[in-house]
Amino acid sequence: MSLANHAPGAGVTGRGPACAPDRSDDPHRRGQTYASQGRWAEAADAYEAALSQSPNDSALWLNLAQARLKLDDLARSSDAACRALALDPRCGPALAIAAQCLERAGRQRDLVALFRSIDMQAIDEAGLHLKLGIALARLGHYQEAVGAFFDVLQRNPRSADAFAQLGNVFQLLRMPEEARESFRNALALGRSPVEMAAAVLFTSLEASSWGNIGADLAALNNLVAAGQEQPSPFFCLNFSWTRQQQLAASRAQAVRLFHGITPLPARAASRADGRIRIGYVSSDFHEHATAHLIAEMFERHDRSRFEIHAYSYGDNDGSPMRRRIEDAFGPNFVQAREMTTKELADRVRNDAIDVLIDLKGYTLHSRNDLFAYRAAPVQVNFLGFPGSLGSAHYDYIIGDPIVTPIEHADGFAEKIAQMPQCYQPNDRLRPLGAPADRAHWGLPQDAFVFCCFNANYKITPQLFDRWCSLLRQVDDAVLWLFVANSQAPKNLLAQARTRGIDPGRLVWAKGLPLAEHLARLPFGDLFLDTYPVNAHTTASDALWAGLPVLTILGDSFVSRVAASLLAAAGLPELVAKDLDQYERIALELARDRTRLRALRQRLAAQRQSCALFDSTRHTRDFEALIARMVDRHERRLPPEHLPTAPADRPNTRCARDA
Q1: Residue 231's Cα: distance from chain center in Å?
Q2: Beta-bridge partners for 381
Q3: Among candidates 137, 101, 95, 91, which has minimal Cα distance to 116?
Q4: What pLDDT does residue 16 have?
Q5: Is it the case that residue 274 has pLDDT exceeding 50?
Q6: If you average pLDDT over residues 566-583, what whole number do you get?
Q7: What is the spatial distance between Cα 593 and Cα 526, in angstroms, rounded to a whole number?
Q8: In what order do the strands lie in the sheet with 333-335?
Q9: Given a cut of 90, is residue 13 above it in pLDDT?
Q10: Among residues 8, 85, 9, 84, which one has the least CA distance to residue 40?
Q11: What are phi and psi of 120, to 5 degrees?
Q12: What's the confidence (pLDDT) of residue 23?
C-alpha cells in the first residue's frame, strides 16, 4: 500500500477523498464547501450530519477526521480516523491522520497498538514506519524500534531521519559505536550537520573511542562558528565549552522547542489558604538518580506553609522509590504521561500552582514545552540540568554560591537564586547493603584503589593520561572504573596499554542496585572525579558511603558541582584548581595514607551533621528561597538575582587557595 500521495494533514476536499467515490448528498456537499473555505467547525458539523445518514461510509469518517484535526481536536480526530480505517483497512490517509493525532497527543501506546493492528509490511510509506519506531523507542521497546527503523531504510535507504533515530536507539541500548556510525551516516546524508557532528563526538566519548575526537571537536566548533545552528545543550556540557557557549546552545534549543506556543493568560492571585503551591515536573519519579536525591525533601516539606504537587510524565516502574514519592505527594501526585502538553498546562493552571519547577531541563524524555505555556506565575530550573535553559519562560535557576556565583550571571538566561549551602538535596535514607570484602568486588586486598564510578562519556583522554600517570607512580595502585556500556572497557584497556599500563591494573564495576553500589564504595581509597563534567549524584553517593572525592573546580555549573558537595561535606581541600594540582593531591594522598585515613575519619564523623546531608535544614532553606520568589511576584516585582547572605555562605576555601 502506498501513501505517497496522502501526506498526514493534507486536505481531504474537492470531489471527495481518493478512498471513496463522489456523492451528492447535501450534508456532505456542505462539508466539502466549508472545508474548501477553511471553515472547519462548520465542516465537521456537516460531516457528522452526513454520517447520521451513512454511518458506514469510510470517506465521510476520513473527512470528519481531517476537519477535527484542523480544529486541533486530536482525540475526536483520531477516533474518526480509526473508524474510517476499521471500515477500509487499506485507506492510507486514515492511517496517516490517526497516527499524526496519536503522536501529537503523546499517546504512544495507542499509536503502537494502531500500527500493530494492521499489516505494516504492506505499508510502503517510510514515514509511518518511522513514526512506529519513534513510538516504540519512547515506550522503551528499543529492539523493536531498531527493526522499525530498518524497515524505513528498506523503503528509503537514504533516510537521514532513520539513521539519526537508529543512533538514538543504539545509544539507549548502550551500543555507542553503532550509534556513532548511524550518526555519521545521517551526517553524510545531510541531517542537521551540527546536531549530528555533536552526536558523533558524544558517542565517541561514551565508547571511550578517542581516535578522532580532536578532529571531530574542531569540525564541530567550526560549524558552530560559521553559524550552522547549535548542538544539543546536553552534549555541549562535555565539550569544554565556556558557560557563554553553553548558554548559546540552550537559547537555540529553547527557540526550537517553544516556537509557536501561546502562553496561557496571566493568572489572578488565588492563595486562599495562604499556602504556597509548588509543582514539581519530571519523568524521573521512580528508580532514578534525581529521585534518590530529592525524595526526602518532598517528605520534609512543611505542609502548613506549602502544598506540593507532582506531575509525572514518566514510567511507573512499581519500585519502592516510586511508591515512596507517590506517598509523599498523596492525592496531588498526577500521572501525566498520556496528557498532551496543553492538557498538562491546563491541569497545572487549574491546580493554581504558584511555583512550577522543572526537574528535567534538557535531558532525556523531557517535556520542557510545558513551561512555554506559563501555567504558573513563577517557573524554575532546578536539579535536572546543570546549566541554563536559555529561555525567559524560566524565571530562576536554583544554585548556590559555588555552582552559580552571581558573577557568572553572563552564563544564564534565568536569574540566579542561591541556596545558602549546597544546591543539591540529599536523602539520608539511602540504603546501605551488607558489607563484604575487597575480594567480593574483584579488588586486590592490599592495593591502593583509585576509583571513578562516573559514566564513561565523562572520561576524557587528558584525564585518563593523569590516571595512568598515577598508576605509574604508585606501584601497588589499581584503577576501579564503572562499566556504563560493554564497549568502553576494551577501548580503555587499549588506551592503558598505549600509556604503558598493564591492563590487569584496571578493575571493572558493573551497574548494581543502589544499596549494593553504596556497599561497595567504601572499598575504594580515593574517588577521582572527572572534568569538565563532574560527578553529581555519584559524588554525593561516594561521600555518603565515606569515600573521599577529589575534584577540579571549573568555570561552568557542570564543572563546579563536586566542589559544592565537598564544601558542604567539610572537605574543601579536595578541590583542585587544575589538572596538575589534581594529580599532585592524588599522589600525595596515595603516598601519605595516614593523611588520607584522617580525611576519611573526618568525613565519617561529619556525615550526620554536615550541611550536605542535613535534609531538614536543606528543605527549610529551599522553602525560604521559594518564598522569596513568590514575594517578589506578589509585590509585582520582576525576577531578580537572589543571593544568599554572606554569613550563610559555605566554606569555599579549597586547594586552589592553599
Answers
A1: 15
A2: 358, 397
A3: 95
A4: 38
A5: yes
A6: 98
A7: 11
A8: 333-335, 306-312, 276-282, 355-358, 378-381, 396-399, 415-418
A9: no
A10: 9
A11: -65, -25
A12: 46
Q: Bridge partners of 335?
A: 312
Cα angle 356, 358, 363; round to 5: 165
Distance, CA of 236 to CA of 215 (rounded, Å): 16
Q: What's the pTM value of the predicted model, to 2 decimals? A: 0.89
Chain centre distance of CA 594: 41
Q: Say how far apart CA 309 and CA 353 lie, in whole Å.
A: 8
Contact 169, 150 (CB under 8 A): no
Per-residue confidence at 657, pLDDT binned at 50, 70, 90?
A: very low
Task: Report d(CA 265, CA 206) in Å as an integer.
Answer: 44
Domains in the chain, CATH or no CATH each: 26-170 (1.25.40.10), 272-428+613-649 (3.40.50.11380), 442-607 (3.40.50.2000)
Q: Are 617 and 611 in contact (CB under 8 A)?
A: yes
CB neighbours (10 Å) of residue 11? 13
| pLDDT, tens digit (0-9, with 9 covering 90-100), for 544-557 | 999 999 999 999 99
CA atoms within 13 A on the CB side of 448: 21
* 423 to 67, 151, 428, 613, 651: CA distances (angstroms): 50, 46, 16, 12, 14
Adjacency order of strands within the sheet including 526-528: 506-509, 477-482, 448-452, 526-528, 549-552, 575-576
Alpha-carbon torsion (21, 24, 28, 31), positive or negative: positive
**For the ranges 244-253, 433-442, 463-472, 495-504, which has the lowest average pLDDT?**
433-442
The pLDDT of residue 447 = 97
Nearest to 526 by CA among 449, 455, 435, 473: 449
pLDDT per position as a tens digit, 358-393: 999 999 989 999 999 999 999 999 999 999 999 999
Question: Distance between alpha carbon 531 and the CA centroid of its chain, in Å?
Answer: 20
| Residue-level pLDDT at 9 | 35
What is the per-residue pLDDT across 79-125, written as a single tens digit (0 to 9) for each? Answer: 999 999 899 888 888 899 999 998 888 788 999 999 999 889 988 99
Quick one: CA dihedral 108, 110, 112, 114, positive or negative? negative
Polymer length of the chain = 658
SS3 string, 175-221, reads CHHHHHHHHHHHHHCCCCHHHHHHHHHHHHHHCCCCCCHHHHHHHHH
> Which grid coordinates are listed for 397?
535557576
Q: pLDDT band for position 49 (50/70/90)?
A: very high
Whether pLDDT at 653 is above 70 = no
Cα separation, 616 vs 297, whole angstroms:
8
Q: Taking a C-beta distance cutoff of 8 angstroms, is the pair 577, 553 a contact?
A: yes
| 78 vs 94: CA distance, rounded Å | 9
Q: How far apart are CA 130 and CA 165, in angstroms?
A: 8
The predicted model gives 298-307 an average pLDDT of 98
Is residue 260 exposed (0-12), middle (13-18) or buried (19+ Cβ within 10 Å)?
Answer: exposed
Q: What's the pLDDT at 21? A: 42
Q: Nearest CA to 348 among 367, 371, 365, 322? A: 371
Helix (H) or strand (E) holding 293: helix 289-300
